[in-house]
Amino acid sequence: MQQPPNQVTIRLMKEDDKDQVRTMVRRSFHPLKRLSFTFHDHIFVAAGNDGIVFGLVVLQIFTITPNRPKTGKVSWILTDPQMRGLKLGQQLIEKAIEFFKEQGCDQYLAVVEGHNTSSAKLFSTRGFGILSPGAQLRRFGLRIFPLWIKLLLYLDVGFFLWGYPQDPKPDSPKLQWAATYALSALTLLIIALRIPRFGIEWWFFSLAALAIHFGARHVTMLFVAKKIDMRVRFRMWESGFALSIFIATLFAGYYPIPGNLYPDRSDWRHRDTLPQLGRIALGATISVLVLTWGSWFITLMTPQPPLLPQTLLWLGRYLLLFDAVFFFFPFIGYNARRLWDWNKCIWLLIAVAAILVMLV
Question: Is residue 128 helix, strand or coil?
Fold first, then answer.
């Protein structure tokens, strides 16, 4: 185990630091996540007086349009897990803000996973805030789509765009839920047009099935949250729809992007709230399981089943795959990951029930 340093200096990374940086990234991130790590010109490290690297922050600077000032992006920030509690993350983010100001940036951005509360706290205490889809459109207009490419946000389901300065207008969870439904409906329309045997009639019934599944999932989560006295709010996963529409267009497959509920405050800790979030996730997955198994039973017992139970079964199987089975990266925003982190035995029971309804 490394000993805490007597003195830490925040400085630009040297060539000799690269091996230590690679080792830290390997220890800190999943193999798929590590694929996106690259060395940039602007990397600051927290190093002891003996040269050992205990943390780093990777920065990028770019212009969204030629006539706009520069924009700074915090691409990565991490500290050695054995050095937690020394406030190295605070020193690194303060150095990043200082550097952005020196370079003439008028705004700073970062992409943070929804349950990465350590990074979220670092940003929120320094004037950053989550930019809702509406805030992004107000700030960037249609430039938001090429900006997502720069940020790699179109691959990060369950990740949110943080910005400094914060948007002064409060966002609307209800509007975000409505936008989630509308974009999901667009994805289903593409699938209906791609598969001739589905057609427009199937699409109309799939809209009803989508409202039932998403509505039951959402209402059940709100009900459980109220029962356990936890204030929550809905957040849309806007970045996932680019990938969902791409999959629907090329493969006629459905990639559900339902969004999720998060604590309605900025200072929460994932570890502390996991028991409550696990119970909320359990309620959501049970509601989808009941609807999906019930639809299967109706289609089994009816010689010519109506389209509504057929579409409920079709959509439910897809939703359960991500919301009840896939707990690993890059699907960590779905409820399956909350169940896995909270209680692996409960996750296993839910996952078995979900897999069975996919096989029957």
Answer: coil
DSSP 250-310: HH--------EEEESSSS--HHHHHHHHHHHHHHHHHHHHHHHHHHHHHHHH-SS--HHHH
CA distance 247 to 20: 38
Q: What is the pLDDT of residue 315?
A: 98
Q: What are phi and psi of 265, to 5 degrees?
A: -160, 165
For residue 4, name the pLDDT band (cuts at 50, 70, 90): low
Residue 194, Cβ neighbours under 10 Å: how many? 14
Whether the Cβ atoms of residue 149 and residue 100 lie closer than 8 Å to each other: no
Does residue 109 contact residue 72 with C-beta atoms inside 8 Å?
yes
Calculate the average pLDDT of the chain. Answer: 92
Check residue 324 and give its pLDDT: 98
pLDDT above 90: residue 31: no
Which is nearest to 155 in space by CA: 240, 96, 70? 240
According to DSSP, the β-strands at 42-48 and 8-12 are antiparallel
Task: Report pLDDT digits (tens) over 42-95.
Answer: 999 999 888 888 999 999 999 887 777 899 999 999 888 777 667 888 999 999
Backbone angles phi, psi at 127, to 5 degrees: 90, 0
d(CA 238, CA 221) in angstroms, rounded, equals 20
Q: Which structural domains are found in the chain, ordered by start?
A: 8-164 (3.40.630.30), 173-359 (no CATH)
Contact status, residue 340 vs residue 333, Cβ threshold 8 Å: no
Q: What is the pTM of this model?
A: 0.91
- In angstroms, the CA 216 to CA 219 distance is 5
The three-state secondary structure class of 1 is coil
User: How far, rounded to the nearest angstrom, does the alpha carbon of residue 155 sit from its chain's CA centroid?
Assistant: 9
CB 220 within 8 A of CB 284: yes
CA quadruple 293, 296, 300, 305: dihedral positive or negative? positive
Closest to 22 measured CA to CA, from 76, 71, 59: 76
Residues 158, 188 contacting (CB under 8 angstroms): no
Distance CA 119, CA 292 (A): 37
Distance of CA 29 to the CA centre of its chain: 15
Residue type, 175: L
